[in-house]
Amino acid sequence: MLLPLVLLLSLPGCLSIQGPESVRGLEGGSVTVRCDYKPRWDSYRKWWCRGAYWELCRILVQTTESQLEVKGDRVSIGDNRSHHFLTVTMEKVRQDDTDTYWCGISKSGPDLGAPIRVTIEPEGTLLTTLASMLSRRTTNGRAGVSSVSYSRNHYILLVFVKVPILLILVGVVLWLKGLSNESLST
């Protein structure tokens, strides 16, 4: 019974910095991730790195004590110390950007980190178009732009795709049943 709690507490930074579990984006677009941290870490450097294991991941961009916003090649990071969160934006994303990334805090001893699975989908499919439209509309949320939209994508797809298809199928079945009833009566 205590094992899940022990495992949770053993994860690096699990209670000090938190981000969304996963985010999705469209190829060619941008992905924004928000990671919240405890106030005690305000003055520390923040970083964004890529790799399945945070101890071995490659830092793509990081803040300094004096530079709270830093822009790399296609990645930027901003540290909002007054509200205790950092924002990472990946621009012109490609499908090969799909990977595990980490929001992190540099400190003496082991750094603190929170893993985020970033998935980049090919442009042009109905699913990704709806996901993109939704992610642009849901910009406030503690977990980040795309993770909020991802949890709502299912409902959007349910309402605008699955329910109409189901209604069409029910209509076709009723129509065919009506045709068979007419042929039996004649």
Describe this entry's structure for a reader.
The protein is α+β, with helices and mostly antiparallel strands. The chain has a domain at 11-123: Immunoglobulin-like (Sandwich), CATH 2.60.40. It has helices spanning 3-10, 126-137, 145-185, and strands at 17-18, 22-26, 31-37, 46-50, 58-62, 69-71, 75-80, 85-90, 99-105, 112-121. The protein has a 5-stranded antiparallel sheet with strand order 1-3-8-7-6. The radius of gyration is 22 Å and the shape is elongated. Mean pLDDT is 78; it is low at 1-14 and 137-155.
How far apart, in Å, are the first and last alpha carbons?
69 Å
- What is the level-2 CATH architecture name of the domain at 11-123? Sandwich
Overall residue-averaged pLDDT value: 78
> What's the β-strand tally?
10
Helix content: 25-40%
Largest sheet geometry: 5 strands, antiparallel
Examine the coordinates and then state which fold CATH places here, giving the name of the CATH topology of the domain at 11-123.
Immunoglobulin-like
Shape: elongated
The order of strands across the largest sheet is 1-3-8-7-6
Oligomer designation: single chain
CATH superfamily of the domain at 11-123: Immunoglobulins
Number of helices: 3
Q: Which CATH class of the domain at 11-123 is shown?
A: Mainly Beta
Secondary-structure content class: alpha+beta
The share of residues in extended strands comes to: 25-35%
Topology as H/E string? HEEEEEEEEEEHH
Unreliable segments of 5+ consecutive residues: 1-14, 137-155
Organism: Panthera pardus
GO cellular component, one term: plasma membrane
Subcellular location: Membrane
GO molecular function: transmembrane signaling receptor activity
